[in-house]
Design goal:
With 446 residues, the protein is mainly beta. It has 2 domains: 14-96 and 111-285, Sandwich (Jelly Rolls), CATH 2.60.120.10; 288-427, Sandwich (Jelly Rolls). It has helices at residues 85-90, 382-390, 417-422, 430-434; strands at residues 14-16, 22-25, 46-51, 64-69, 80-81, 97-98, 104-106, 121-129, 134-143, 151-155, 159-166, 169-173, 176-180, 184-188, 194-197, 203-210, 234-237, 249-255, 258-264, 271-276, 281-284, 305-310, 317-324, 327-329, 346-351, 360-361, 364-365, 369-372, 396-398, 404-409, 414-416. The strands form 7 sheets. It has a 10-stranded antiparallel β-sheet with strand order 1-17-21-14-11-16-9-8-31-6. Strands 7-28-25-30-23-22 form a 6-stranded antiparallel β-sheet, with no helix packed on it. The N and C termini lie far apart (90 Å). Residues 1-9 have low confidence and may be disordered.
Length: 446
């Protein structure tokens, strides 16, 4: 059969809305009516259920999707370990993380032009354990070439939140295609097969792999029914199947922090139709509806949460994805930058938009990141403190020159040996240049 036969002329079509029950078919009348697993599905397809949560999870949190495909995903060879030592070092396990209270900042990590998405994934930080589905891992991913033509990849360890900061990603997933650009994010849930190609050349992205739970929209509370990221603005792929069952395909699996490979004679992207609540999606950060103070004080950065992964403790997240969009600052008698603070949460932050006028702020450059661990103090450098303390307070639009994101977690973050030493990107004078120049302004009253 021919390779890459899509019923849709444009594979980059989207359904709208996150958390909604979606259904899509590449061939009309594929989806069964009033049942999920008929004795003989339409067109000789197989039924496969993809479960992102346990069957018995309460209905509000249950995530399942029914797939109607040419061959089931179980039709493959035995899993064999992928023993490439270089890859194992890049995807170092939790036991190899180093835990430090030091505030750390890194120059931009190099783009590895000679590798693909799998080979270019580097663990930077993390905490927890995929075996017990606790915690998370954070990667910098760079690549200069497409994944192999008949290869797919998936992680059994967690959902992957992708934040590009250079280049464009074309994600071919089992459920359809997503094209992801800078200033957009994408989430590929645990277990979903996908392939990454690079239509515009080399890429670099940051990614958070969530071992525990799934991402959702944060509750709005007293904000009301609208604001922040609105469900209708999320984009979900439509079914776009591929016919190929006469070729050698490989599927690479990330399982408990290790890589395995299987071979099969059919494309993993052969889903003709699907319906359910468990699917990949993307979001344009330009659609974020920011909310802030219109009187005084700098509001907690939680007000900029795009997606959250709640823990079992009310109000505490395993991970939050936070984005600081262009926004008006109008607060009176207020120190407008973030106040100096120590958090119960750890912060991993960086800049994401290569098209901005200022790709650097306070020593942080586009492609670099900074980590402020649990209860380690941080805030503005001395120059920004002096300027913000003495500036004339008029309405000003913030975030037009730089755009920043943050992964925030209730876990203590460990950092890899590669990031701290081998990459050569650690800024060793971070504390000295950032906060030690702060002056004493205290004046004891007479």
């Amino acid at each position: 059969m021919p390779l890459s036969v899509f019923e849709h002329e444009d594979p980059h079509q989207y359904l709208m809305g996150f958390g909604n029950y979606h259904q899509t078919e590449a061939i009309n009348n594929t989806l069964p009516v009033a049942q999920n697993s008929p004795q003989k599905p339409a067109y000789g397809l197989y039924t496969e259920k993809l479960s992102g949560t346990a069957f018995t999870v309460p209905r509000a949190d249950n995530q399942q999707t029914w797939l109607y495909r040419i061959l089931p995903s179980a039709a493959h060879s035995k899993f064999e370990p992928l023993f490439a030592e270089e890859l194992k070092q890049k995807l170092a396990s939790d036991s190899q993380l180093q835990y430090t209270p030091d505030q750390v900042r890194f120059d931009p990590f190099d783009i590895e032009d000679s590798v693909d998405w799998i080979g270019g994934s580097r663990l930077v930080a993390g905490s927890g354990d995929p075996k017990t589905k606790t915690g998370l891992a954070i990667y910098v991913i760079s690549a200069g070439k497409d994944m192999a033509a008949r290869q797919a990849y998936y992680s059994a360890d967690g959902d992957l939140l992708i934040v590009p900061n250079q280049g464009v990603l074309d994600l071919q997933t089992e459920l359809g295609r997503l094209r992801v650009r800078p200033n957009e994010i994408a989430v590929v849930p645990r277990g979903i097969r996908y392939r990454v190609t690079l239509p515009d050349g080399p890429i670099r992205a940051f990614a958070l792999e969530l071992y525990q739970g799934h991402f959702k929209l944060p509750d709005l509370g007293i904000i009301g029914s609208n604001g922040l990221a609105n469900a209708r603005d999320f984009q979900v792929p439509v079914a776009a199947y591929e016919e190929d069952y006469d070729s050698d395909w490989s599927v690479v699996a990330r399982f408990n922090g290790e890589l395995f490979k299987v071979h099969q004679t059919h494309s993993p992207f052969d889903v003709v139709a699907w319906h359910g609540l468990y699917y990949p999606f993307k979001y344009d950060l330009g659609r974020f509806n920011s909310i802030g103070s219109v009187s005084y004080d700098h509001i907690d950065p939680s007000i900029y949460t795009v997606l959250t992964a709640p823990s079992d403790s009310p109000g505490v997240a395993v991970a939050d994805f936070v984005f600081f969009p262009p926004r008006w600052l109008v607060m009176e008698d207020t120190f407008r930058p973030p106040w100096y603070h120590r958090n119960a949460m750890a912060e991993f932050s960086g800049l994401i938009d290569p098209g901005l006028k200022t790709p650097k702020v306070e020593g942080l450059t586009l492609g670099g990141i900074q980590i402020h661990n649990v209860m380690s103090g941080h805030g503005s450098d001395s120059q920004l403190f002096e300027a913000a303390s003495n500036e004339k307070l008029v309405p000003v639009k913030e975030g037009t020159k730089i755009k920043a994101f943050m992964f925030e977690t209730s876990s203590v973050l460990g950092i890899t040996q590669w990031a701290l030493v081998d990459s050569g990107k650690l800024q060793r004078d971070y504390q000295k240049s950032k906060w030690q120049p702060l002056k004493v302004h205290f004046k004891k009253p007479a």
